[in-house]
């Protein structure tokens, strides 16, 4: 320390310049380190905000889609209920289901938020179960269309075919109800999570 004081007394201009350079360097270093820390904090905050916005946006789109799909499933279940109560015949049931499927197929195909599927980035929904149920629905519908009642059928054959058809319709009703509950659970999960951000 004494040597520094002697240096400053002997060469005041060099000493002052050295102190200025060291002080400036330290100030510049601290300012840059502080700026890096501040920028890192801002980046993380902006990234978190972007993530929240994307999650809320995906949740809104998925909620709208789930509500439409649940409405379709509910209408289908109502048709099966009317069939079981004897209010409509199986040919009318098939026609009504085909019309509803056609209507909702077009409606969901032209759904403005078709990118709702990126909700799966944020949630781990059990798509295996819904795929199994959808495959079972397709299988039952295929088997129903293969059942043909002809005039040459005996009463026993006709009754057996009607019983077989009713069995498939009952299974379809159960599948629709199960899909409805699954999508209702998805909707509840998404909505409850969105509430945390609002």
Briefly characterize the structure.
This protein has 198 residues and is mainly alpha-helical.
Parts with pLDDT < 50 across at least 5 consecutive residues: none
Computed CA radius of gyration, to the nearest angstrom: 35 Å
Quickly give the structural class. mainly alpha
Beta-strand share of residues:
under 5%
Compressed to H and E, one letter per element, the order equals HHHHH
How many beta-strand segments?
0
Query: Could you tell me how far the N terminus lies from the C terminus, measured between alpha carbons in angstroms?
Result: 61 Å
The number of helical segments is 5
Instruction: Indicate the percent of residues in helices.
Output: over 70%
Shape, per Cα inertia axes: rod-shaped
> What does the largest sheet look like?
none
Round the mean pLDDT to the nearest integer and report it: 82
Give a written overview of the molecule.
This protein is mostly helical. Helix content is 83%, strand content 0%. The longest helix has 73 residues, at 12-84. It is rod-shaped.
């Amino acid at each position: 320390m004494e040597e520094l004081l002697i240096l400053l007394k002997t060469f005041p201009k060099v000493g002052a310049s050295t102190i200025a350079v060291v002080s400036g360097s330290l100030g510049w270093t601290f300012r840059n380190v502080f700026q890096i820390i501040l920028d890192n904090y801002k980046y993380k905050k902006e990234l978190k905000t972007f993530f929240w916005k994307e999650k809320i946006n995906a949740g809104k789109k998925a909620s709208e889609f789930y509500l439409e799909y649940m409405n379709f499933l509910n209408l289908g279940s109502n048709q099966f209920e009317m069939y079981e109560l004897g209010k409509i015949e199986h040919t009318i049931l098939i026609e009504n289901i085909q019309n509803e499927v056609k209507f909702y197929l077009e409606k969901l195909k032209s759904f403005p938020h078709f990118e709702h599927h990126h909700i799966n980035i944020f949630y781990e929904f059990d798509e295996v179960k819904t795929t199994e149920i959808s495959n079972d629905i397709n299988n039952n519908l295929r088997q129903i269309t293969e059942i043909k009642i002809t005039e040459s059928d005996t009463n026993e054959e006709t009754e057996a075919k009607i019983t077989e058809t009713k069995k498939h319709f009952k299974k379809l009703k159960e599948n629709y109800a199960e899909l409805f509950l699954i999508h209702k659970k998805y909707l509840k999960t998404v909505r409850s999570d969105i509430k945390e951000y609002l």
